[in-house]
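STRUCTURE:
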């Protein structure tokens, strides 16, 4: 249902006496601005908070849970106002709430919260959001259903079925999310964004007052009387609760997928507003497309597309794809599943008398879905099981799924049992014959081909998809030697290499360290371990450390940001005092466990201290006079942006001695940060040298990985041999670029730089 062109040309008077041609534009403008502010504050404030927790994507996941919960509170508040009070009383109370929210502005992080705890980060983060932005967000969140309910009482000719106004609301939300990464973030600092938001809030308050006055002049319109109209507030209580359960379920799946998909794609690229808002914008776009009488896609066509994309999505979860392929697959999958669920939700909507109740239960399902992925799943599943489970639930949202299971439950159960046996056999065969590096690879390939063969009857694919999800999530730990540990900061996998000679630490889809556990002849590896992956002596980091040590005759004090498996500890020499700064307690436990990795125990001549907490905060506590600071912090393949800003480099310089150097590991599949670092370093007068190493030996030989490393120094002489080595080159700063700061960073810039190489 869309806003028709003639909606703005209604008569100035109707049979009930409502006399205002301004009703429609005022309500549309109010809903648009309200939604724009509501969804503009989400990336803005999360961007403010992100550096305090190491830039982990989990910050956005928890933020989504908070905003969804507060949205439910706003919808419940609107429902109570409409159900218990007349329009004048409700308007007076709501305008008072808006005034109280105005007193809490401009939006900023609440003072007095200090540092996040080493455990219970999610609860701490929810509290910070509540005291900093809770009341303004709550006040605005009620406007969607509240203004629609007021419009239903206005006497306007379109007031009998006001759900079309939800499109105006979601267009405003979509506009905010599209504008933030491409217009707002690149041009305004966070402080400027906050002040602009306050100005928008003042304008919205005036519009809401106008809506209340216009609605008070009218009388409620009659509900639609045709047979295809939404359900009325009648029927047995059991039927009513079944209807509510359907609203909750159809809201649960898209909301959970929103959190899961966002975490999946931002983990391997960067935790940045661009990758936060794209899935959320698509989520809102589906409301615009689905909340209409003419479906955007016919049901059978949608079913076929969903089945294809679910197969591709499961395939992509167990293999590494380039960014240009993985993003369209996961975002397309999310768009289609969400569109199917939201269209089913629209078809089950009640009439205008139950409008606020409908939105309240819909929001309740959204909160449950977000909480399941953002809060519950990290504690229940040792790996990311929620994403494939929600993909399966998305198939169950298809129009034919319920009928297929109701009418053919016996055959569907047999098909599931046969599919499960087939997938398990495929996995076992893959292990036995060594197909690729992962047995799940071929199981997923089999699923994709099966889905392609069965696509004309999409409901038949559900048992096969369920069997594959069961293997990927529940049976996979029993069929492989992989050990997984999950924390607030992500999933860590510890597994032997395919030939059994190395134990590998992987975070997300990226290897973060490896140690030899068996010699080439199969005997156990003993003695002092040799660093592998990015940390070999001849690698980029090893070259940088050796050159700096030679230039100054030693490295008396070094701070290393990021611990990983502890491989850097093998570069410590007698007489040197190294300190590691690490944010994730699970990483510390893994690195200090000699049964997993022996670098910390067997490499350094003396125990090396490890300081827990975000490096920007813990580095501020370190004494000055460091010879080198090594920045080697990653979340999967993403480098936290707040560790490479102008302010971060200034902090490092304060902790260095006059001849000290900053070494930054920036190897990445999707981003190139060399020019960004050179530009930020130029703000402090630093020279930046880079090496892009490309070893020719196979990974299986020593598990040596190519590295990209930047070394920043005040004078070329401080870099030693790096300044003249043929493998290293000076990166001239592009002074036409805007330097990254704590208030400003543009992830598209780094993506473009990578594409140009």
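SEQUENCE:
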């Amino acid at each position: 249902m869309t806003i028709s062109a003639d909606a703005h040309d209604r008569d100035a008077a109707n049979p009930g006496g409502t006399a205002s041609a301004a009703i429609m534009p005022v309500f549309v403008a109010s809903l648009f601005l309200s939604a724009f502010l509501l969804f503009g504050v989400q990336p803005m404030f999360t961007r403010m908070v992100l550096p305090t927790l190491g830039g982990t994507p989990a910050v956005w996941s928890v933020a989504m849970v908070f905003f969804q919960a507060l949205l439910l509170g706003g919808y419940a508040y609107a429902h109570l106002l409409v159900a218990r009070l007349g329009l004048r009383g409700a308007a007076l109370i709501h305008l008072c709430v808006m005034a109280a929210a105005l007193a809490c502005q401009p939006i900023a992080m609440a003072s007095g919260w200090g540092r996040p705890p080493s455990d219970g980060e999610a609860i701490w983060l929810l509290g910070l959001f509540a005291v900093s932005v809770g009341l303004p967000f709550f006040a605005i969140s009620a406007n969607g259903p509240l203004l629609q309910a007021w419009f239903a009482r206005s006497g306007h000719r379109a007031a009998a079925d006001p759900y079309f106004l939800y499109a105006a609301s979601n267009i405003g939300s979509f506009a905010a999310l599209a504008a933030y990464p491409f217009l707002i973030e690149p041009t305004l600092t966070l402080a400027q964004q906050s002040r602009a938001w306050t100005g928008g809030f003042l304008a919205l308050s005036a519009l809401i007052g106008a809506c209340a006055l216009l609605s008070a002049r009218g009388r409620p319109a009659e509900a639609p009387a045709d047979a295809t109209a939404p359900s009325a507030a009648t029927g047995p209580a059991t039927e009513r609760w079944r209807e509510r359960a359907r609203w909750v379920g159809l809201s649960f799946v898209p909301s959970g997928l929103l959190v899961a998909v966002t975490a999946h794609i931002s983990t391997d690229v960067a935790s940045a507003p661009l990758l936060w808002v794209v899935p959320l914008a698509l989520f809102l776009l589906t409301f615009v497309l689905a909340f209409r009488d003419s479906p955007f896609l016919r049901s059978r066509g949608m079913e076929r597309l969903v089945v294809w994309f679910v197969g591709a999505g499961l395939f992509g979860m167990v293999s590494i794809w380039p960014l240009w392929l993985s993003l369209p697959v996961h975002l397309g999958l999310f768009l289609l599943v969400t569109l199917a669920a939201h269209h089913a939700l629209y078809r089950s909507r009640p009439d205008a008398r139950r409008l606020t109740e409908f939105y309240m239960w819909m929001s309740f399902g959204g909160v449950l879905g977000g909480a399941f992925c953002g809060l519950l799943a990290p504690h229940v599943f040792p790996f990311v099981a929620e994403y494939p489970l929600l993909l399966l639930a998305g198939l169950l949202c298809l129009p034919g799924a319920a009928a297929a299971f109701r009418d053919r439950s016996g055959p569907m159960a047999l098909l599931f049992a046969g599919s499960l046996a087939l997938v398990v056999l495929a996995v076992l065969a893959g292990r036995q014959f060594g197909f690729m590096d992962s047995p799940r690879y071929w199981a997923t390939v089999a699923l994709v081909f099966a889905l392609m063969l069965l696509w004309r009857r999409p409901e038949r694919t559900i048992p096969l998809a369920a069997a594959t999800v069961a293997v990927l999530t529940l049976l996979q730990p029993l069929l492989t030697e992989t050990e997984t540990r999950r924390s607030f900061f992500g999933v860590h996998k510890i597994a032997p290499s395919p030939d059994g000679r190395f134990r590998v630490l992987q975070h997300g889809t990226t290897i973060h360290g490896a140690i030899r556990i068996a010699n080439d002849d199969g005997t156990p590896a003993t003695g002092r371990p040799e660093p592998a992956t990015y940390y070999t002596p001849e690698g980029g980091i090893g070259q940088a450390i050796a050159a700096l040590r030679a230039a100054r005759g030693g490295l008396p004090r070094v701070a290393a940001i990021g611990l990983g498996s502890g491989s850097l500890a093998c570069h410590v020499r007698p007489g040197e005092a190294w300190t590691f700064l690490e944010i994730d307690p699970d990483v510390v436990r893994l690195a200090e466990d000699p049964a997993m990795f022996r670098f910390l125990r067997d490499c350094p001549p003396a125990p090396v201290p490890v300081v827990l907490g975000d490096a920007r905060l813990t580095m501020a506590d370190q004494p000055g006079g460091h010879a080198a600071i090594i920045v080697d912090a990653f979340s999967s393949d993403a480098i936290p942006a707040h560790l490479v800003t102008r302010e971060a480099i200034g902090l490092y310089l304060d902790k260095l001695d006059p001849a000290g150097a900053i070494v930054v590991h920036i190897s990445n599949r999707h981003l190139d940060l060399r020019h960004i670092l050179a530009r930020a370093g130029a703000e402090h007068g630093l020279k930046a040298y880079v090496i892009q190493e490309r070893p020719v030996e196979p990974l299986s030989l020593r598990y040596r990985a190519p590295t990209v490393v930047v070394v920043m120094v005040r004078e070329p002489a401080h870099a030693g041999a790096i300044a003249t080595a043929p493998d290293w080159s000076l990166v001239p700063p592009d002074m036409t670029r805007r330097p990254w700061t704590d208030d400003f960073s543009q992830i598209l810039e780094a993506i473009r730089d990578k594409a140009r190489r």
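REMARK: The chain is about 55% helix and 10% strand.
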